[in-house]
Amino acid sequence: MRAYAELVRAPAALTVLGDTVAGASAAGVPLRGKRLLLPVSSVAFYWAGMALNDWADRKLDAVERPERPIPSGRVSAEAALGTGVGLTAAGLGLAALGGGKAAVRVAVPLAAAVWAYDTLLKPTAAGPLGMAVCRALDVLMGGCAPLAAAAVGVHTLGVTALSTGEVHGASPTTARVAMTTSCVATTLAVTGQARGRWHRAASLAAGSGYASFVGRAQADALRDPSAKKVREATKTGIHGMVPLQAAVAARGSMLGAALVSAALPLARRLSRKVSPT
């Protein structure tokens, strides 16, 4: 089970639960009843993407990361692919049960985007954009909230671009781009209609927390773009998705923002056991 937890980066799924919560809150369609299955669908798609990522990278990982589950022999390539297929099907099924046709219309292109990223786009210059599309669609599965989707997508773009330097280090330009996307994501997250002054204040507080949390790590990577600093900034960027989602959700739902925020300490604690990168 530990090998499969490493394969899908299990604890990192806590950072994806808030995508649909943020989308639903921003769109004014709270997650209730069957719609509570939508965040679970997001987790299934996320885990599917991680399994497919390692399946597609198995030869490269045999050289650069031989400790990963597939090259170390703890999970076979066939089992990893089967895991990706099964979790993709689960994601589609949960989306249909939780959100009906409206959710399926987003879930199908989301599944396609996940597969396209892992099998085609990741090693290309379009890789970061492909991942950004995946996360933006995940937000839209919760509700039609373009600004919310853009905030999460832009953040993902920067984190994914920076993550390409996890093994050999990154260029200062890439680190600078990541910091710029974080600034844009902060602006998008707190922009737009809020239900009231307290909702606006909570959104600004979460947005400031996100900018500080992610910005410090990315500034360190800019000063020293070594592989170690880049890995730390990437991990922080993954966890930083939570306060960003909270900033978006707070504009429409204080409860939603609080529930999303609760995932951060647990995700950071569990990341000591299973790396999210």
Your description of this structure?
- The chain is mostly helical and 277 residues long.
- The protein is 75% helix and 0% strand.
- It has 12 helices and no strands.
- It has helices at 2-7, 17-27, 37-56, 58-64, 77-121, 127-142, 146-163, 172-190, 197-223, 227-250, 254-261, 263-270.
- Helix 2 packs antiparallel against helix 7 (146-163).
- The model has no long low-confidence stretch (mean pLDDT 93).
Give descriptors for this structure:
277 residues; mainly alpha; globular
In short:
With 277 residues, this protein is mainly alpha-helical.
List the helices and strands and how they pair.
Elements (H helix, E strand, L loop, with lengths): L1 H6 L9 H11 L9 H20 L1 H7 L12 H45 L5 H16 L3 H18 L8 H19 L6 H27 L3 H24 L3 H8 L1 H8 L7
Helix pairs in contact: 2-3, 2-6, 2-7, 2-10, 2-11, 3-5, 5-6, 6-7, 7-8, 7-10, 8-9, 8-10, 9-10, 10-11, 10-12
